[in-house]
Amino acid sequence: MASLEISQRGALWIVATGVIAAGLYFLREPLTQFAMALILWLAIDGLTTTLDMRLPFTPRWLALPIALILVLSLFALIGFVVIDNLANILSDLNRYEFRLNQVISQAHRALGAPGIPSTVRDLVAQANPNNRLAVEIGGSLQNFASAATFTLIYLAFLFPASAAMKDKLDFIFRGKGQREAAREVLARIRESMERYLWVQTVMSLVITALTYITLRIIGLENALFWSFLIFFLNYIPTIGSIAAVALTTAVALVQFPTLPPVFAIFAGVGLWQFVIGNFVQPRMTGESLNLSAVVVLLALAIWGLVWGIVGAFLAAPMTVMIMIVLAQFPSTRWIAILLSADGKPTPETKRVSKSESGPK
């Protein structure tokens, strides 16, 4: 009888996991937009609380619009810089194409491959035989603009929804103990997310600044553009650092006719990624990102498969959120323990955001 019950429970877990995975995949477009809006809301709410606590003469009703303007202005500035530098890159496409053809020809001769080396246009034609590359790029830009619009709409509705959450918990959980437990779980999730976002943003800004200085000294063109791309890549655990080094090295290989500047960029960008990523960042994210290294890589693969590039950005915070929720139930706590790095998936909450008590 007991074995039958265990089998039924295991089958139920498998079916539930499959249904949830299918739902996350088929509804990935609205869910990723909502998830990005939630991350933005947490960043704004965390900055609001920081301003409220650090600036005693700033009431919360004033700290909230200041935080909102600061966060959205940062993203607007990054978008402006990326678009402006992208125009410069597109204007130099002919020069880049000539250099790429040289690199392809050199690699072709070095490998001793037979026949005539392919050109960039040949490779693009093979990858896109119907010559619809421009149409696909235009469609991607249109989808990005649509996703950004819906993300901002979700963000606008999250603020009044979060203000009413306290009353909703009172209606859902009638017992005082249940309400306190639910609030504690939400506080832990919020605190972990806000701390993770804060540390990740600070570390990304430091790496971006050091990378920009390095690229400018060596002489890489459009250094600000590549530095901002690295800023976003650093939100992807492990893989983002590798992609940042590979990206700048590939760009240097196209620009410089000799190898010493290429090796200099590879060593310089790789140095900042290695030092900060392995010595500075773990000390700061240890309490917020309490995930095993293997779990981080597995989460990156799974969320990236389900939600694409947005899933790669959200892999770590989403997995932390799931770990904290699973730790609240005896039947699933063992999963949370396996996901955690130190076997303690629910550390003590150090603070509770002032927003939970409502505006001043």
Automatic annotation (TrEMBL):
It is found in: Membrane. The keyword Manganese does not apply. Pfam families: AI-2E_transport. It comes from the Bacteria. GO terms for biological process: transmembrane transport. The keyword Membrane applies. The chain crosses the membrane at residues 12-28, 34-51, 63-83, 144-164, 196-218, 224-254, 261-281, 293-326. Belongs to the autoinducer-2 exporter (AI-2E) (TC 2.A.86) family. GO terms for cellular component: membrane. It is a multi-pass membrane protein. This is AI-2E family transporter. Keywords: Membrane, Transmembrane, Transmembrane helix.
